[in-house]
Amino acid sequence: MTISVLGAGAFGTALAISLAKETPVTLWARDSAQVADMQRQRCNTARLPDVPLPARLTPTSDFSQATEAEVLLLAVPMQKLRSVLQAHRADLKGKVLVACCKGIELETGFGPIVVISQVLPAAKPALLTGPSFAADIARGLPTALTLACSDAKLGHQLQQQLTTANLRLYRTTDTSGAELGGALKNIIAIACGAVIGAGLGESARAALMTRGYAEMQRMALACGAKPETLAGLSGFGDLTLTCSSPLSRNYQLGLSIGRGDGFDPNITVEGAATARATAAKAKTMGLDMPLTETVVGLLNGDLTIATAGAQLLARPLKEE
Ligand SMILES: NC(=O)C1=CN([C@@H]2O[C@H](COP(=O)(O)OP(=O)(O)OC[C@H]3O[C@@H](n4cnc5c(N)ncnc54)[C@H](O)[C@@H]3O)[C@@H](O)[C@H]2O)C=CC1
Ligand SMILES: O=C(CO)COP(=O)(O)O
């Protein structure tokens, strides 16, 4: 079996490093200078500077070389997924495509599986998601993820093919639940970072995580997802990691909002566009998602932390 990873950011490189310890892996980046640097230094100096690339990992900027593999992992940000697929439609036709991004497309409200199916109707889409920092995977630390694929046979096969010594995959056919868990937890992580950054305390964070989980479930169940998927690695698991670790970029963005600091717009923070997409989607579906709306208000500068907190606390009292 041959594997390629498309996108040599932090996550794509980490997955390629882990998989290349067991099988040959091609890692594609669009930037030929970055590829030359990885070939020379045997390291992704920009994203994972302390981790050497295994001998069986081949960096390339030649897209057709990368698409010779049987299984392709798509590790580009969610908001870039459609354009990458469209740009390489011919090479990707009919391929097994495992999306590794976590988010909802701003313009359409769709997750990665639908985007793949729209651009490449003959492709066989799957999703790899769950609690994992690129740095942990790259360093060989133990990690458990969810492999979601509506085709149960293909999902079983991918689970076997993509499990490594440190990366244990569970499988599900509930792609909608896995997509939404991984996407929506980023919104709540921004909120948690904001609360901690503003010094509002650990109790407030626990409240946000719990009510955020209720909000995630509300949206996911309305979209036909299974509750047990939300309770699994892709939902509850990733919510826990992302809302509690300063290594999370979504949490870091929240921290900077809470502290009133600036934030580098070039850092990949999936939760920002996803919050906006989710708030719009919730409105059309008639769903109450007050935390998501609050995060959008904070991101747009329409709310301060003080007014956001006051608004949430003043909401009508209800059953849990
Ligand atoms: N970094 C992490 O710990 C984890 C990241 N993820 C997910 O993986 C996805 C990617 O995140 P990271 O790798 O961390 O981001 P990153 O910012 O480190 O890398 C993104 C990569 O995508 C490439 N890219 C962007 N637009 C492109 C285009 N149009 N064509 C080709 N390449 C393009 C960039 O050059 C960059 O190498 C996100 O959805 C994120 O949520 C998931 C789990 C863990
Ligand atoms: O998805 C992640 C952890 O599972 C990575 O989180 P960030 O994108 O917030 O860094």
UniProtKB/TrEMBL annotation:
<keyword id="KW-0520">NAD</keyword>
<feature type="binding site">
    <location>
        <position position="249"/>
    </location>
    <ligand>
        <name>NADPH</name>
    </ligand>
</feature>
<dbReference type="Pfam" id="PF01210">
    <property type="entry name" value="NAD_Gly3P_dh_N"/>
</dbReference>
<feature type="binding site">
    <location>
        <position position="248"/>
    </location>
    <ligand>
        <name>sn-glycerol 3-phosphate</name>
    </ligand>
</feature>
<feature type="binding site">
    <location>
        <position position="249"/>
    </location>
    <ligand>
        <name>sn-glycerol 3-phosphate</name>
    </ligand>
</feature>
<keyword id="KW-0443">Lipid metabolism</keyword>
<feature type="domain" description="Glycerol-3-phosphate dehydrogenase NAD-dependent C-terminal">
    <location>
        <begin position="174"/>
        <end position="307"/>
    </location>
</feature>
<keyword id="KW-0594">Phospholipid biosynthesis</keyword>
<keyword id="KW-1208">Phospholipid metabolism</keyword>
<dbReference type="Pfam" id="PF07479">
    <property type="entry name" value="NAD_Gly3P_dh_C"/>
</dbReference>
<feature type="domain" description="Glycerol-3-phosphate dehydrogenase NAD-dependent N-terminal">
    <location>
        <begin position="3"/>
        <end position="153"/>
    </location>
</feature>
<feature type="binding site">
    <location>
        <position position="238"/>
    </location>
    <ligand>
        <name>sn-glycerol 3-phosphate</name>
    </ligand>
</feature>
<feature type="binding site">
    <location>
        <position position="270"/>
    </location>
    <ligand>
        <name>NADPH</name>
    </ligand>
</feature>
<comment type="function">
    <text>Catalyzes the reduction of the glycolytic intermediate dihydroxyacetone phosphate (DHAP) to sn-glycerol 3-phosphate (G3P), the key precursor for phospholipid synthesis.</text>
</comment>
<comment type="similarity">
    <text>Belongs to the NAD-dependent glycerol-3-phosphate dehydrogenase family.</text>
</comment>
<dbReference type="InterPro" id="IPR036291">
    <property type="entry name" value="NAD(P)-bd_dom_sf"/>
</dbReference>
<feature type="binding site">
    <location>
        <position position="185"/>
    </location>
    <ligand>
        <name>sn-glycerol 3-phosphate</name>
    </ligand>
</feature>
<dbReference type="InterPro" id="IPR008927">
    <property type="entry name" value="6-PGluconate_DH-like_C_sf"/>
</dbReference>
<keyword id="KW-0547">Nucleotide-binding</keyword>
<keyword id="KW-0560">Oxidoreductase</keyword>
<dbReference type="InterPro" id="IPR006109">
    <property type="entry name" value="G3P_DH_NAD-dep_C"/>
</dbReference>
<keyword id="KW-0444">Lipid biosynthesis</keyword>
<keyword id="KW-0963">Cytoplasm</keyword>
<feature type="binding site">
    <location>
        <position position="130"/>
    </location>
    <ligand>
        <name>sn-glycerol 3-phosphate</name>
    </ligand>
</feature>
<feature type="binding site">
    <location>
        <position position="132"/>
    </location>
    <ligand>
        <name>sn-glycerol 3-phosphate</name>
    </ligand>
</feature>
<feature type="binding site">
    <location>
        <position position="102"/>
    </location>
    <ligand>
        <name>sn-glycerol 3-phosphate</name>
    </ligand>
</feature>
<feature type="active site" description="Proton acceptor">
    <location>
        <position position="185"/>
    </location>
</feature>
<dbReference type="InterPro" id="IPR011128">
    <property type="entry name" value="G3P_DH_NAD-dep_N"/>
</dbReference>
<keyword id="KW-0521">NADP</keyword>
<feature type="binding site">
    <location>
        <position position="102"/>
    </location>
    <ligand>
        <name>NADPH</name>
    </ligand>
</feature>
<feature type="binding site">
    <location>
        <position position="250"/>
    </location>
    <ligand>
        <name>sn-glycerol 3-phosphate</name>
    </ligand>
</feature>
<dbReference type="InterPro" id="IPR013328">
    <property type="entry name" value="6PGD_dom2"/>
</dbReference>
<feature type="binding site">
    <location>
        <position position="11"/>
    </location>
    <ligand>
        <name>NADPH</name>
    </ligand>
</feature>
<feature type="binding site">
    <location>
        <position position="134"/>
    </location>
    <ligand>
        <name>NADPH</name>
    </ligand>
</feature>
<comment type="pathway">
    <text>Membrane lipid metabolism; glycerophospholipid metabolism.</text>
</comment>
<protein>
    <recommendedName>
        <fullName>Glycerol-3-phosphate dehydrogenase [NAD(P)+]</fullName>
        <ecNumber>1.1.1.94</ecNumber>
    </recommendedName>
</protein>
<dbReference type="InterPro" id="IPR006168">
    <property type="entry name" value="G3P_DH_NAD-dep"/>
</dbReference>
<feature type="binding site">
    <location>
        <position position="30"/>
    </location>
    <ligand>
        <name>NADPH</name>
    </ligand>
</feature>
